[in-house]
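Support case: user asked for a sample of complex input and structure output to validate their parser. Sending the pair below.
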Amino acid sequence: MARMKFLCDAERCIECNGCVTACKQEHEVPWGVNRRRVVTINDGVPGEKSISVACMHCSDAPCMAVCPVDCFYKTDEGVVLHDKDLCIGCGYCFYACPFGAPQFPQAGAFGLRGKMDKCTFCAGGPEKDHSAEEWQKYGRNRLAEGKLPACAEMCSTKALLGGDGDIVADIYRTRVLKRGGKGSEAYGWGSAYGPPTGGAPAAATAPKS
Amino acid sequence: MIHWKPLVGATLGMMVLAGCGESPQQLGQATTYKQGKYQGKPDSRPYESGPSSYSQDKSWQAGDKTGWEKAVKTRQQAQNEYNRAE
Amino acid sequence: MTAWLVAFALTGFAGIAWSQSQPAAAPAPPATPAKAAPQTFDSVLNPNAAEQAKRQQAQPGNNAPVWRDVRSEKPYYTTDRGVEAGVLIQSGGETWRQRRNNQIIPIGGALFLGAVGIGLLFYLWKGTMKLKERPTGRLMPRFSGFERSVHWTVAITFSVLAISGLVMLFGKYVLLPIFGHTLFAWLTILLKNMHNFVGPVFAIAVVIMFFTFVRDNWPTVRDAIWFAKAGGLLSGEHVPSGRFNGGEKVWFWIGVLGFGVTASASGLVLDFPNFEQTRGLMQLANVVHVVSTVLMMSMALGHIYMGTVGVEGAFNAMKTGYVDEAWAKEHHEYWYNEVRNVATPHASGGPVPVAAPQNKEEGV
């Protein structure tokens, strides 16, 4: 199986925030934390485009590279997960991430950071699958149930695709061809997955050399 | 006369520091799975526990890797609206 | 001292003269309406909006202006109330990561280990500098109780911050392979919280320390001579100095004031993330913090070395507040003479106050 990827089609996203709501309700995310958010450029004027953003589960993940206690790990499916028991709440992953995915619930006075929380690609965490501990710390483990991220699965316009990267690319390629080869850029792919390989959607965001 | 001990010490120190770099993270280079642990952190793989009791899809069993992959890929086709509409 | 005052005064006059020679200030900008800064980048003000509207008419599907906005790091509209939630891609993080992982950690580690190595080699070469003359048994007050309290507040908070900081910076490569993830994370959580709470205490203590010791750390011409002879450290020659010698003054101005204030200021930016400071600022603050603290820790090793094993009697001075007259004459002769000339009772060899500790080496 190829690695898991997210893709948000800016041509289709209608800023309904359904993905945000689905994520919040599926995982009962703590107050003050949004694992997914929708950002709208040119809001309310002609040329408006919206993009849904969460952790992109990068190939060369900056959060993983800077964590002082090495609490991150990458699964066989390319999903970047972290161990909240190890997290010290230093905020370095938040500094390093280009997408603003890692977030910290306030754990005390003066903005003291608690355990980092971020999108898990609905793959839970290190605890036993489907256990109460896993649910409390990381939310539901849909991947272990043979399901895919709730945000992508319930996206009404199918702007947000999530799952096996090859299938995501296939679906997107078909779509771009059907609409006349237009709007093939995919938000964040350059930053998250590196230079495009054969068959992958064009990255609208050039990777930094 | 050359002071060998400081030189050897400095060289060894630099060699030790060379370890203070980044380790590779790309799939295939970094995803090591040993006895229930990814890169030192405990976690099982998604196909090992099987569908939960309230899951509708019973096409695969716990530990059935190919079955799980097939179930996920089949399910992902629900995101392909051209498949559904045509 | 006088020369410095004159120079200081001249600088002040020059500054006033310069400011008066400036042309009259430009008319004040029109007063901005009193309202909070907009949370999001206004679509109406976005020049790319009109361009995108035109572009998607002319070439449907071509969203180049929008993709430029994506990389612009401006906060666009979002219902998420988080800080910088409207920013789509922040590029500074990657730069910060490369700096930290590929430059700061290896170079900083080499610098710190190098400082430790130099200290060890120097100790093996020179050993403890013993008093050349027999102690007289007459004690002189060197540090008041307040001065010692300030010194040890800074010293203890510094040590806590240095150890926890070193673990957070290098522990992943040094301790983690030995301790394993669980124990190392437990230790680092503890140290990180200590770092966060002890940090502000250090910041305040450093400021108090500056005003406590600045008077006797003012650079003088004598220090130039001291530096020219490297303090007699290598030659063993006797170089007289005031209450603090040139090396101590360098540590005071560069170490305590320079690095101490830089590290405190950047640390406070990182310590309180609830003021909506941006990631870009925190990335910069982190680099400044780590660079200044690694340099400060390397320098502190020299200070700690001289204050403990390097010089006989130096540690007791800060521990008890008193030094032997022989020690004072040998290490700080100008200060010794000044104190004697002031002719306070016990400084001139009179009766030592009852509270003063007895010199253990008396009668050796």
